[in-house]
Predict the 3D structure of the following.
Amino acid sequence: MRYPEEEFLREIKKIHHQTPRWVIGLIAVGVLVVLAWYTAGLFAILLISGIIAYLFSSLIKRIQYFGIRRNVAVAVLYAAAFLLLIGADVLFLPYLKHESENLTTRLPDISRQAEDAFSDLKGYPFAEELVDKVLEGIARPGHLLSRVLNLPELFSQAASLAFALILIPFFTFFILKDWPDMLKAVMRRLPAAYVETAVATLEEINVLAGKYLRGLAIDCFSVGCIASAGLWMMGISYPFTLGVITGAANVIPYVGPVISCTAAALIAFVQFKSAGAVVHVLGLYIVVKLADDFFIQPMTIGRSVRLHPMLLIISIIAGQKLFGILGMILAVPAVTILQKIAQILLDHRQRLRSRTAPSAHIQKIIV
Amino acid sequence: MKKLFLWAFDREKDHRLSILQRVNLFKGLRRNFLMKLLVDLVEKEYQQGDVIFTEGEPGKALYIILDGSVSIVKKCGSEDKVLATLSMGSFFGELAIIDQMPRFASAIALEKTNLLIMYKSYFDDLIRSSNTMSAHLLLNIVELLSAYIRKNHAVHMSDRDEIS
């Protein structure tokens, strides 16, 4: 006599055997996306922790090259980061905090001043409608400018700032410390026939993702510093905050520089109430963009890693929908790496298909 | 304090380091370079009878034996010829990281075996990253290849003598 549970299991097995693998893969990806959607905050924290751990993994390895245990290396890194944070807190953070607080409290004033400054342009044909749209879309509180300039807003959709600040170092610590053990556990369970392909794939992904993420971090830092220095020399208010925004927005190709340039131009326009200041800011951002495209990016990221413009826009919109502004910034590197991983996996899959099965003579030796 | 200082150092790696120092390919290379290899490379434990790679498939990695033994087998017509049996401190699959041609022979674990796997792109990075190290490594490979040529030449000559 057959029990209903047995019958049910048989049916499940039958469905599993009959369903093509790509359908199962698609379902798995769908489940992951839905999970990511509902646990967006935690997912964002994990993603940031993973990226930070990845960026520092090569430093940890360098410490290990001297024969030092990984745990100790991670502890040393955390101690150094702690000291650095105290240093930064003393040197830069008060300035950045003062700037961003000042900017946040003054935002309604700035918005009003911007309205006054823009109203001078209203006499020109077609300008009235355009000015209204610009003010509506950018300068009014709660719109683009206030969202971009309000730094804590970046984290608000992921989780509360305090929650993220505790969890990110916590997760990063364990990812950094336990990564080799996780890798070992995977390798132990991997069938011998797939080891070479798996190591090959992992190595290619590692080289590519490492180069890209480290390159991107250096690129954004350099662009932020140059923009900040330029704005400071031009006497524009909030150069440090605008530099941070420029650096962070630089992760998003095409759209990022436009956002940061608009923010800086608006501040300059409100401050000096002249189109000349805006032109100077535009000039500075064009120079920064050219320097980035022709000197910094080729030296840091290289030209091999590029997203198709259509995929780029889709990923920015999806990132924004999932995690807000933070998602917009994270989406581009995440999708770029995923695209490259998919390319490498497909490439290996193709090579694996052409692989011949162990022939009879080897089977004989094994027996 | 001294105990704490000693604890900070990874003593487990010392044994593996002594094995790597015996590998011909890494002859003359500094200790910290070998430590780099131990940190960077993936390690895998194979069970007895596991096929590490099969003759004819595309080669992508070099293997260093940390523990256990491996048989290198070549199919000659309908016969199976064991070309070599390698043990701790030996390495195999080196031709794949030089020319990326299909595997010349198959490799099978004869017992529980621990291998360190060096993938081609990592090897290429090593060659590009350090001049002194890459010079050493390349010189060791050249020595290895010249030994193969000499051996093959000797076999060829003895075969010719036998025929004549």
In short: The mean pLDDT of chain B is 84. The interface with chain A takes residues 7-10, 13, 32, 35-36, 39-40, 42-47, 49-58, 60-61, 71, 73, 75, 79-80, 82, 106, 108-109, 117, 119-122, 125 of chain B (CB under 8 Å). Residues 131-163 of chain B form the longest helix (33 residues). Chain B has six helices and eight strands.
